[in-house]
Automatic annotation (TrEMBL):
Domain FAD dependent oxidoreductase: 6-197
InterPro entries: FAD-dep_OxRdtase (IPR006076), FAD/NAD-bd_sf (IPR036188), G3P_Oxidase/Oxidoreductase (IPR052745), K_uptake_TrkA (IPR006036)
Protein name: Glycine/D-amino acid oxidase-like deaminating enzyme
């Protein structure tokens, strides 16, 4: 039997919550660490909630947008409590760079059927029929709840202060509540990523510098 990996996920925004949920299905030893007292308190709480697989995307990234859209449909099946509104979106009077397979041109009458309470109607509009919306806080908290039910250890009110390295290997994190050992650290700290990345770059630069000194 292969040994379970000790995985620490830092940050319980929508990204950390999603990683925790998906890893919880893989029978690993996972801990999710969040500095706030609950999940989804960072940028996630300010999201516009739009599941938007179109937009200005280079062709070679389009598969990621397609994949994320497909994943939401999978997630809806896995978590029946999750409610996604697949109502699409309407645009007019602005340039739309959506992939053509995601939009159709619709008439004033069709716009009115979809949105009966507008004050003024355009002659025509672009309907992005595959798009949806989801409450990011509800989704994030659901993912954390499901991860916890699947055995993930959740630590709220716990701030990761430092990543500990031994030789060339990351061995754990120092937190406001003590040290946690780990084989793998996933940084899902949103806008706080640079604090940790600069630390790793610094460690890398220092090791590189030492290497240069001793070679
Ligand atoms: C106004 C606005 C509208 C948006 N609209 C959309 C939209 O319609 N559709 C869309 O897909 N995206 C949208 N986005 C983008 C989307 O909200 C973000 O990409 C997403 O929420 C990022 O999630 P995250 O988990 O990476 O970051 P966050 O939600 O910021 O989570 C990071 C977590 O890490 C925790 N943390 C940080 N440092 C530490 C530490 N040292 N120790 C422990 N925990 C730590 C924080 O407390 C936080 O909970 C929007 C963003 C904004 C600002």
């Amino acid at each position: 039997m292969t040994k379970k990996q000790k995985v620490i996920i830092v940050g319980a925004g929508i990204v950390g919550a999603s990683i925790a949920y998906n890893l919880s299905k893989e029978n690993q030893d996972v801990t999710l660490v969040e500095s706030h007292s609950k999940a989804g308190c960072g940028v996630t709480s300010n999201s516009f909630a739009w599941i938007n697989p179109s937009g200005r995307v280079p062709d070679n990234f389009q598969h990621l947008y397609d994949g994320s859209l497909a994943e939401y449909h999978v997630l809806e099946k896995e978590i029946p409590e999750l409610k996604v509104d697949w109502n699409g979106s309407l645009s007019w009077g602005i340039p739309v760079n959506s992939h053509k397979s995601y939009i159709e041109k619709i008439t004033r009458q069709q716009v009115s059927d979809l949105e009966p309470h507008l004050r003024e109607y355009p002659k025509e509009a672009l309907y992005a029929f595959k798009e949806g919306a989801v409450d990011p806080n509800i989704l994030t908290n659901l993912l954390v709840k499901k991860a916890q039910e699947n055995g993930v250890n959740i630590l709220f009110d716990t701030k990761v202060t430092k990543i500990k390295k031994e030789d060339a290997k990351v061995v754990g994190v120092h937190t406001s509540k003590g040290f946690i050992e780990s084989d793998v650290i996933v940084l899902a700290t949103g806008t706080a990523i640079p604090e940790f990345v600069s630390l790793l770059v610094l460690i890398f630069l220092l090791s590189h510098h030492l290497l240069l000194l001793f070679v």
